[in-house]
Amino acid sequence: MENIVRQIYDQIQKAHQIAMLVHTHPDGDCLGSALALAHILEKTGKKVRVISPDAIPGYLQWMPDIDKVLIFEQTPRQAAEWLEKSDMIILIDHNTPKRTGEQLAKIVEKYIGKKTFALIDHHLQPDPRIDLQISDPDKASTAELIFDFLQQTGLWDRYADREAATLIYTGIMTDTGSFRFGKTSAGTHHTAAELIAKGAPNEYIHVQVYDTYSYDKMQLLAHALRHMKIIPECGASYMVLDRKTLEKFHYRPGDTEGIVNYGISLKGIAFTTLITQLPDNDSIKLSFRSKGDFDVNEFARKYFNGGGHKNAAGGRSAASLDDTVKKLEKAIRENCHKIIAHA
Ligand SMILES: [Mn+2]
Q1: Residues of the chain with CATH 3.10.310.30
Q2: Which of 99, 113, 286, 305 has the fewest CB atoms lying closer than 10 Å?
Q3: What spacing in Å lies between the alpha carbon of 233 and ligand 1's midpoint?
């Protein structure tokens, strides 16, 4: 067993109650990872809850144990009480408590130095205030780190079941874009094979996640594609979904999921952005994707107060929608040569 795995497992064994946190706008990887670990730790007799800052998107509501997630936005007092009574807080698939949103982060940060904190994640630059870290940016998903953790501690051999396998498979599948993004490795496929052997219904999971569009969601995608802007000389594209459009198609959390990936599906395009003006939010959300070595984590940090991975990152803008688009176009021009080199 790796030393850090042993240290985190020791703390888990000592803890009576554990809170596991996922990031805002939760996705298949953070939820699959956190729920799988919670599922198995519950079998060992631990009191564990997964806390999400905000709502579970529709395409993940079929997941095992999803109804056990405490949603801070909906039941803030219950979530805060669980945190207060926990002796250990584990951050899953995010690198700092800040990724849990302003209000929840404020509560969590109070406990740094007072409760035991651990982090299991694959994003760059983990928060140095957290002592116990399993952080591996070379992994395609956090779910693979969770699998390795369970295997090294022997928990997988003792407690693995169909539910845990399904949850971990969902995390890997969604974060690797169905096993096609750059960091998908032989190890990723070995893990997937073990999960299917343990009962993960792989075809069912694909259908639940990808083939359950509502008519509105499909129309929203069509709108985004029809209005996609291309800057061919820089190998860049972008799409904008303003508040009015989202309202027209009765936006629900998760409806914009995956749209950004179409922006780099074009030949000759190595960088794309989806700008979303969420109805319930003042700031504007940006999602970035790239092919090859154009680093969108760096781009998101430099221009849009965000970050993530080399080929997938996110950011925010407090400016108006028009000014955000102008700022993006200017940033694309500044990076034109770097982007086109990978197109
Ligand atoms: Mn992830």
Answers
A1: 215-340
A2: 113
A3: 32
